[in-house]
């Protein structure tokens, strides 16, 4: 599976010119704080139901073809949509190569304390761990 299939069409406008804009991570932090209780409930449900011990949440502002929609930015008047997935789906879809699974597991933080978020932006995607409660 290639990036376009996974991420859908992320490029708006075809000029490929760099755009000056503030970091999307500022609004992501705000939304994750707002969503934290709901995301934790889904993470616990994924683990308790035996679906996976490794829930992963996808944060995006475009269309992605992985996971199940749990929090829609259009419905909630926020900047980011959140979808729920698992390590197993990430391996199945080829986002995490099977050879890199052990490396990923070593860096995976306790899902009781942190949400594992795969952040998708037009420039690419990366994993971040966001604590459920900021001190």
Overview in brief:
Residues 12-22 have a biased composition (Basic and acidic residues). The protein is α+β, with helices and mostly antiparallel strands and 135 residues long.
Strand content: 15-25%
Number of helices: 5
Structural class: alpha+beta
Uncertain stretches of 5 or more adjacent residues: 1-20
Percent helix range: 25-40%
User: How would a textbook summarize the main sheet?
Assistant: 5 strands, mixed
Order of helices and strands: HHEEHEHHEE
Distance N to C terminus = 39 Å
The count of domains is 1
Radius of gyration: 15 Å
Secondary structure blueprint with pairings:
Layout: H1 3-7, H2 24-48, E1 55-60, E2 68-71, H3 73-76, E3 81-86, H4 87-92, H5 101-107, E4 114-121, E5 124-131
Parallel strand pairs: 1-4
Antiparallel strand pairs: 1-3, 2-3, 4-5
Describe this structure in words.
The structure is a single chain. With 135 residues, the protein is an alpha+beta fold. The protein has one domain. The protein is built from five helices and five strands; from the N terminus they run ααββαβααββ. A five-stranded mixed sheet has the order 2-3-1-4-5. The longest helix is centred in the N-terminal third of the chain and has 25 residues. It is globular and about 35 Å long. The N terminus is likely disordered.
């Amino acid at each position: 599976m290639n990036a376009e299939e996974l991420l859908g069409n992320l490029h708006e406008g075809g000029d490929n010119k760099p755009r000056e804009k503030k970091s999307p991570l500022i609004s992501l932090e705000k939304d994750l704080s707002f969503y934290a209780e709901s995301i934790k409930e889904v993470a616990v449900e994924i683990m308790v139901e035996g679906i996976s011990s490794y829930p992963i949440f996808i944060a995006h502002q475009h269309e992605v073809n992985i996971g199940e929609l749990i929090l829609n930015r259009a419905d909630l008047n926020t900047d980011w949509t959140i979808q729920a997935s698992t390590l197993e789906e990430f391996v199945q879809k080829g986002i995490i190569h099977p050879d890199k699974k052990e490396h990923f597991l070593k860096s995976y933080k306790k899902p009781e304390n942190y949400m594992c978020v795969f952040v998708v932006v037009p420039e690419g995607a990366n994993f971040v761990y966001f604590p459920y409660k900021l001190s």
